[in-house]
Structures are given as C-alpha cells and as structure tokens.
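Lab notes, practical 5.
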Amino acid sequence: MGKISIDISEDSYSKLRHQDYELSILLGVDSFAYALSDERRQIVALREYTFEQQGAPAWQETSAIQTIIQNDKRLQDNFRSARIGLSGQALTLVPSRLYNPLEKNQYLLHLSALPDHAEILADDLGELGCRGLYALPAPLLGALRQGFPGCRFMHLSSALLQSWRKLAEATGSGHCVCLHLQAGELILALFSNGAVQLCNTYPYQSAEDFLYFVLLGLHQQELDNNLTPVFISGKLLPESAIFTLLARYFRQLQFMPTPAQIAVGPQLEQTPGHFYADLFSLMLAS
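Output from the prediction step:
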C-alpha cells in the first residue's frame, strides 16, 4: 500500500456530506491522489498516497489500488459522482471526423503492441476536435469500477489539454507551450490559435533531458523560445534545477495558475496551486 504524503481537511469538510461531494481521483506515475469538492467546486479534502517505484509504475499493480480503496474509510462512502484520471500510458489523438469506435484497437496497434489484457478507452475532447485513445490493464479498470460504480475514466493528458486550451486562448499570443511533470515523466503540448499542434509524453532523468524535449517541440513547430509563452505545472519549485534551467531559455516562463472555477481553503492555499494542476484539470474536464 502507498504511504500518505499529503492529508488536508478544510474546516468546511463534513463526513456526513459525502453524498453531496464529487470525488476526483488521479492515478499518477508514482502516486494515488484524490480530492473531495462540493457543489461550488470548493475543495474540502485532499489526500495523496505515494509509491516507491520498482520497474513499472506501482499503481498498475491492482492489489495496491485495492488496498488503498479498502483501507481508506473516506473512500467507502457513496459520492454524488466520481471521476478517475489515469496516466502512465501515452495518449494518441485521433481527429473526431475520422474516429470510428469499432477501430479503437487499430489506431493503437499502428503505433505499438498492446499489452496483455488491455482495455482501450477513448476520451471525447470536445472543442479540441479530437478523441484521445489509450490502453490500460483491464484488471486495474475492473477493480476501480468495482470500488466506484458508475465512475468516469479520463486520461490525465485529456484533462490537461482541456485546461491548457483555455489558457492558450487567454494568452492571445497565438502560440503557447504547456508542460506538466510527474515522477520522471513530462507531458508537453503546443497550441496555435487555440488548436493543439503537438501533444506528447517523454521520460526524463535530468533537467537537461527535460529542456531538450521542450526545445525539440518548439523546433518542430519553428517557434521562437524568446517569444513563446510557456506554462509549467507539477510539484516543482522556482529554485529547482528544471525551472532554473528553463528560465535561462524562455523569457515568458510561468507556473500554471489555479483555475478561477476552483476554490481552495486556507489549508490547501498554503500549497502552490500548480502542484495540483493535474487534479484541478480533472475536476473541470467536460
């Protein structure tokens, strides 16, 4: 079972109101985090478990997830709704006008071999005009469906893309680069006039690796790093090696702001908003 690393309960939280709360769960590369929010999208509780990685992402071990669900008393109750964000496998974008639900396997088989006992899911990205396809272990999805009947699944990249699109439109600069990092993984997207031009996931081991993939994305789209706004999120501090190195190459580098639709209480407010941009994006995803 994972170890609790963050545990926040606001004064407004009530265990008697679980049926009124929305449950948002995010399975990251090395973590299991969830938030409870009320009808005003105010976060009343947030808890995060971290895993020690050994080879494949630990959360893919169904038993580890089942243990958390069975031992965390908050997760035993019924909620108004539940959505679960998933990562650890790459997302493939398919234009909506070309998408055929009967061909889901073929879209992914053209890129790589599917793992054994895989289930393919497809997210409708609405105004982005595409579907996001990804494969995950069927036993894991089955355990989550059993623990949270009626839950809705979404890939982490799908949730981020929807938030990033709004952010890109707000910049009014035409082009925008958005970055999110978790343990050893970078999710990168590039927007042009509100349309996604590039979305990819890269493994990295150093700040130099991280910078290389960001510069590669700009080079592919022939963009000027001095003129392109760059937003970054994840558990990253201004004095970190990654942020310090990026700041040398990008004049318009900033942390992703907390969405205006999300309300945080006094306790969560002490944590930088960009730390949980992934969970916030999941909460707001359509």
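Observations recorded by the TA: The mean pLDDT is 91. The chain has seven helices and 15 strands.
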